[in-house]
Amino acid sequence: MIRICLHGAESTxxxxxxxxxxxxxxxxxxxxxxxxxxxxxxxxxxxxxLRAIAAGQQAAVDAAMANRPPLLLLDTDQLMTAAWAExxxxxxxxxxxxxxxxxxxxxxxxxxxxxDDGTRFFGQGPLRSRFAALAEDMLLRANVPWRRIGxxxxxxxxxxxxxxxxxxxxxxxxxxRA
Length: 178
Prior knowledge:
The structure is a single chain. The chain is 51% helix and 15% strand. By secondary structure, the chain is α/β, with parallel strands linked by helices. A 5-stranded parallel β-sheet has the order 2-3-1-4-5, sandwiched between helices. A two-stranded antiparallel sheet has the order 6-7. Helix 3 (47-65) runs antiparallel to helix 4 (78-89).
């Protein structure tokens, strides 16, 4: 099983693309638990909230992995929660960096228009740039394999499709079973 994590600042197309590719390729994706958490509880987050988000994200990943799909798309993971911790509180608890890592991270650049959906925080210039830099920093701190994804929406999609094709042989649009 290959786990590819879509990683990066808010409003860069990760969720939309993960959902689309999941349906088209017939593979599962794990949505961003933090979005659900904030929709249910609000956006006044504490470090304990971030710990709960990290645990909830892992529970969702574990459930999705139970069926051993050949490819699992993750719409974020605890490394992004770590970026949130750094951005909001200026520190990252070690436990956020200790969670299992994906096999490959795709870092989505913050080079597309920001859209406020009620759960997003950092859409304005300097804040968005700082948050995007922290997202990249977490990948570097964790020393995980990653690639940068950028450009317009169609270009991003083409880049991600190419990475999936390189990572997992594709037959007729469906990932080959290992």
